[in-house]
Amino acid sequence: MIYVIVGPTGSGKSEIAHTLSERKNAPIINADAFQIYKDMDIGTAKISKDNPYYSRYYLLDIITPSETFSVRDYQLAFRSVLEELLKTHKDIIVVGGTGLYIKAALYDFTFPKEGEPESYDQLSNQEIYDILKEKDPESLKTIHVNNRKRLVRALNILNHGEVTKSENIKSQSHSFYRSDIEVKFLFINPERKVLYEHIDERVEQMFDNGLVREVEGLLKTYTLSSTSSQAIGYKEVISYLNKTLNLEETKELIKQRTRNYAKRQVTYFRHQLPCQEYQNASSLLEDVK
Q1: For the chain, which residues score pLDDT lower than 50?
Q2: Nearest Cα residue to 9 out of 250, 228, 266
Q3: pLDDT digits (tens, 9 = 90+) for 139-153
Q4: pTM for the complete prediction?
């Protein structure tokens, strides 16, 4: 059985994964788009290397922040790891909040053909957003106006691909890429007030733990890629270091963007994956013996 634990950021997914991993003697595959990056630890709430559960994880710390990593890259990496683990394990845990990565990894998910990609340097984010709003509004349900990489990719698919991004997602198979795997989706979705309080506390804790120092170190060591630099918490601290935000503005912006992201995650898991939903960890763990 593959147990897929999903939920909004700050919902307690990792703790559930660790309990199930212990209970089922199962390895854990990371499904967080930013925990794949080395040295991006505090801002991604990544498990520490000295935690005994760290050794159970796969697809953590696999590339540097200078590298780009696409959904297709994740699909290939995930399936390679899964195929190996299935040879020796009856149960496997998948945990993370990046819904599209999970869907692409487990389902018979294909990618549209794209023509020669363009950068659209002459267009602002808002101008690209407006084009997509007119021609492919469905794609914008999961793309923020500030996420230039995803806006550009959606426009490239629109201009050069056989189908739009949203049409491609809708046309995907609802079958798993392997017919012999059994998958159970477990969706932890705390009451919103509780979740938002936890998010606010976690952001404060990240700063107490040295998030600013971590970002300073990353900027000295790497040229951040277009994907790694978009991580919530990192791009805001970069603005703080560039003196375009003060510390309190930075914290509040991270909290707000994290809450907004959590809302989008909840929408995705409810509508894109066949999840059993739970409000707290105890009820979920009671169901999964």
Answers
A1: 162
A2: 266
A3: 787 788 888 888 888
A4: 0.81
